[in-house]
Amino acid sequence: MIIAMKEGVSRGEAEQFAETLKKDGIAVHFSQGANRIVLGLVGDTSAVNGENLMAHHLVEKVIRVQEPYKRANRLFHPAGTTVEVLAAGGTAKIGGGTLGIIAGPCSVESREQIVDIARAVKKAGASFLRGGAFKPRTSPYSFQGLGCGGLDLLLEAKKETGLPVVTELMGIHHLELFADVDIIQVGARNMQNFTLLRELGRSKKPVLLKRGLASTLTELLMAAEYLMAGGNSRIILCERGIRSFDNYTRNVLDISAVPALKKQSHLPVIVDPSHATGLSWMVPAMAKAAVAAGADGVIVEVHNNPEAALCDGEQSLTPAAFSLLMDSLRKYADIEGKHIS
Ligand code: PEP
Ligand code: MN
Fold first, then answer.
1. Angle between helices 319-335 and 283-292 (to 10 degrees)
2. pTM score, two decimals?
3. H/E element holding 299?
4. DSSP assignment of 74-102
5. What is the band of 195 on the pLDDT scale with cuts at 50, 70, 90?
6. Does domain 83-340 have CATH number 3.20.20.70?
7. Which of 4, 54, 205, 299 could disulfide-pair with 102, CB 3.0 to 4.6 Å?
8. What residue segments make up the domains of the chain, in order of their start?
9. Of all atoms in ligand 1, which is nearest to the CA of residue 106?
């Protein structure tokens, strides 16, 4: 961090001011410019409040050289992180050359539905099963998910197929119910629910953190930082489309988020082409684009009867379409020097 003092601030005043900054191992270097003194802060400045410094009467300008996130930053952790969970007969991975393919319905609807879809996506080669039990719906009159009953059915499908499961936690009061869930999803609408993030930081469960509808990449990484500051480093970042001016697609898939996040962070990055586009016919193209852009996996909605789905049928692939997509993704993975477990 660089702090430019106002013109006319004396060396003595600058030194006195610098004393307040010398904590938590931060060193302060002085430079005398033509018109002003400039301070260079060396050390971990992530806890230094730049806005407060800007308000100081002796300070002209504060420039952050280093990103405000530390634990999520690739700078301090050059090797990529792989998130691993136990699966039948070994582990299922996301990152480190393994593409994590998560597939399943938007919502768990019945035992037959979830078990049938779980079997189909497993056969096609998915390594994780998704399915919402607690659904964040825009309208309070829309299907809200089966709740605890849905979670039980999802866990039955896990038992039947051996696929680890991914499902959304909307409120921390439900955390106890998620004991057998393999990856906890924090949905786009909860990306900045800091109470939820803090609690999940204390949990040892992997978290699939979806980018907020209008969140910057720095905000997404700061949300990851909340989890990591609490001690949980098993995080998967997910680009799922953002709000923009066009409404041809449900959201606008920010494919450039993938290389940007991979450059800035060591955490694995996956893409959700289903919620990004809202259109099932576009999902395969965007899933392939995600892998070509360097993503560590995709999360795709699959339904055995999209027309009758209680939620997001229009963006759900049939099992047959998903199986075809998997054939393509294996080839894309190959080109990228990666594989699908
Ligand atoms: C979901 O994955 O079921 C979901 C609701 O996604 P998002 O939070 O990205 O809208
Ligand atoms: Mn959905």
1. 20
2. 0.94
3. strand 297-301
4. GGG--SPP-EEEEETTEEEEEBTTEEEEE
5. very high
6. yes
7. 299
8. 2-63, 83-340
9. 3
Query: Could you tell me the fold of the domain covering 2-63?
Result: Alpha-Beta Plaits (3.30.70)
Here the tokens at position 215 are: 């969140």
How far is the C-alpha of 41 from the C-alpha of 21, rounded, in Å? 8
Does residue 37 line the site of ligand 1, with CB under 6 A?
Answer: no
Q: How many residues are there in the chain?
A: 341
Distance CA 101, CA 324 (A): 14
Instruction: Specify the pairing of strand 297-301 against strand 98-104.
Output: parallel
- Of 114, 142, 170, 210, the residue with max ligand 1 atoms within 8 A of its CB, to mutate for a pocket test, comes to 210
Which of 190, 240, 242 has most ligand 1 atoms within 8 Å of CB, for mutation? Answer: 240
Q: From residue 321, how far is each of 97, 120, 197, 304, 327 by CA, in Å? A: 25, 11, 35, 11, 10
- In sequence order, what E strands does 46-177 have? 59-63, 83-87, 90-94, 98-104, 128-130, 165-168
Q: Check if the beta carbon of residue 236 is closer than 8 Å to that of residue 83.
A: yes
Q: What is the CA(223)–ligand 1 centre distance, in A? A: 16
Ligand 1, atom 9: nearest CA belongs to which residue? Answer: 188
| Listed residue (313, 229, 220) closest to 270, CA to CA | 220
In tens, the pLDDT along 54-89 reads 999 999 999 998 898 999 999 989 999 999 999 988
Q: Do domains 2-63 and 83-340 have the same CATH topology?
A: no
Residue in 171, 164, 116, 182 with CA at minimum distance from that of residue 147: 171
Model confidence pLDDT, tens digit, residues 200-234: 999 989 999 999 999 999 999 999 999 999 999 99
- Cβ of 241 closer than 6 Å to ligand 1, yes or no, is no
**Tokens, residue 268:** 């694995």
Q: How confident is the model at residue 25 (pLDDT cuts 50, 70, 90)?
A: confident
